[in-house]
Design a protein that fits this description.
The complex is a heterodimer of chains A (170) and B (309). Chain A has 170 residues and is mostly helical. Chain A contains six helices and no strands. The longest helix of chain B is centred in the middle third of the chain and has 14 residues. The chains are: A mainly alpha (170), B alpha/beta (309).
Chain lengths: 170, 309
């Protein structure tokens, strides 16, 4: 009986730690993906002159979660409903809000970006994309540093804390 | 007509839907000016609706026209108009942005003018016996604005490319040089109005260059162009009439006598290269043909109406 309890405690501590570490890794990964997606969007707009819904659909198919979901819902919304681009972007972002590993500032940056979409001529549109990219790159750097610093620590710490609890309770 | 409603902001579309149905057949223009009441032109007369166009209306309209992608309209803004589905044209006015003294685009759009493209199939039918004698004749259509020049030109192009069994006219290849995207109403290069099977369109191409491009590359039997009037057009017309293709064109003016006073056109007319002149007036509504003349200006027909209704 004691042994089962001990294993459960150790298990949950380890699971908690690894989950935290995964969050850190996911954030970096997803930010990288978002940056790549915006770069594709810039290329589509600048060189292809692709209409927004078309560009968003293409990008949605190229990338994985959460970028895919954001862009695909967005493409669908602007094609099928009457609401403004800004609104459509916000709604699409809201849908991935609790599922993606982004933090508040990142959501803010992405949300603000939606306000500039489709309203400007080529050069201004490009400037808005580049600005958002710069913000996101800064966030990504921070995320990467955090990951480097804390990922291993979370993992080893969780095992040690688990063991400590088990020892104390024995 | 319905496709236009899809582009209009909901407030304006609702307002317009209240108009009686038979009105719709006659609307020529829908004009939106920000801060001023909505105007529609019916048979040349303005009609003001109570709805005052707001800035939001303008933004929604642009957003719908551009499919939410303003940046795709760069070229169109430079020209000042956009062709939408159905071949209708939206003219724009606002603040002009210059670059090196050249128009680069428009911002802060404040006036929109939707010109409804009319397609009246069969209006050129009574003219055809005059324009075709063992082969198509070089033809010039003369008319003031809004006399139905382009509508007539479009229908002639359609007849040339489909042929006409009753008059024993075979279908021929037609090349349209559509500088202002008005004849064929192209969207992404595809004509939005109905033409026959043998039509090739050079969309938004300068006439002078386009005519030679067509002759070299698409081997048309009949070349259709709109609004001859500039120096380079004269050269191109003189080149083309002697290049083995038949030319059908339009120009602004009231009559043959009048256009003979314009130096550029006088040169073309005096060479007696154009074999048929069709003069249009608005006397009994758009599409009234006042006279058809031969190459020396002699009358071939009397006044007739080509448009029903």
């Amino acid at each position: 009986m004691k042994w089962i309890g001990a294993i459960l405690i150790l298990g949950s501590a380890v699971w908690f730690g690894f989950e935290q570490a995964k969050q850190l890794a996911d954030r970096t990964k997803q930010l990288k993906m978002m940056i790549a997606a915006l770069q594709s969007l810039e290329a589509e707009i600048m060189y292809g002159h692709t209409p927004l819904h078309e560009a968003a659909r293409k990008i949605g198919h190229q990338f994985g979660f959460p970028v895919s979901q954001l862009f695909l819902t967005f493409a669908e919304t602007i094609l099928s409903t009457e609401i403004s681009v800004d609104e459509a972007w916000k709604n699409s972002l809201h849908l991935i809000r609790n599922k993606a590993a982004f933090k508040r500032p990142e959501y803010e940056i992405i949300e603000q970006f939606g306000g500039s979409l489709g309203k400007h001529d080529l050069l201004t549109q490009q400037k808005h994309i580049l600005l958002t990219l710069a913000h996101l790159q800064r966030e990504e750097e921070e995320a990467r540093e955090n990951q480097k610093k804390y990922e291993k620590m979370y993992k080893s710490l969780s095992i040690l804390v688990g063991l400590l609890l088990v020892l104390l309770l024995f | 007509m319905e496709e236009i409603f899809d582009y209009l902001p909901k407030t304006i579309a609702d307002e317009m839907k209240r108009l009686p149905d038979n009105y719709w057949m006659k609307v020529e223009e829908i004009r939106m000016r920000i801060g001023r009441p909505l105007e529609i032109a019916v048979k040349g007369r303005p009609l003001f609706l109570s709805h005052v166009v707001t800035k939001e209306d303008g933004e929604t309209f642009m957003s719908k026209i551009s499919h939410h992608s303003f940046y795709t309209l760069e070229e169109e803004l430079k020209r000042g108009y956009i062709t939408i589905e159905g071949g209708h044209r939206v003219g724009l006015a606002g603040k002009v942005i210059l670059e090196n003294g050249q128009v680069k685009g428009l911002r802060h759009l404040s006036s929109f003018n939707i010109r409804i493209a009319r397609e009246i199939i069969g209006i050129s039918r009574p003219l055809i016996p005059f324009l075709f004698e063992k082969g198509w004749k070089h033809t010039m259509i003369i008319g003031a604005p809004q006399t139905g020049k382009t509508t007539l030109l479009r229908d002639i192009a359609r007849v040339v490319s489909t042929g006409c069994d009753q008059l024993n006219i075979p279908p021929l290849k037609v090349g349209i040089v559509d500088e202002r995207s008005e004849i064929a109403g192209c969207m992404f290069g595809i004509p939005q109005l109905s033409f026959g099977p043998r039509v090739d369109v050079l969309d938004a191409c300068p006439k002078a260059e386009g005519m030679m491009m067509m002759i070299r590359s698409m081997s048309p039997d009949v070349l259709v162009v709109d609004e001859i009037g500039r120096e380079e057009d004269r050269m191109a017309v003189l080149e083309a009439v002697n290049a083995g293709v038949k030319l059908v064109m339009t120009t602004h003016g009231d009559s043959l006598e009048e256009i003979q006073k314009r130096p550029l056109l006088a040169d073309i007319v005096n060479r007696q290269l154009i074999e048929r002149y069709v003069e249009l007036t608005r006397e009994k509504g758009p599409g009234t043909i006042s006279v058809i003349r031969g190459e020396k200006g002699q009358r071939l027909s009397r006044q007739m109406r080509v448009e029903k209704g």
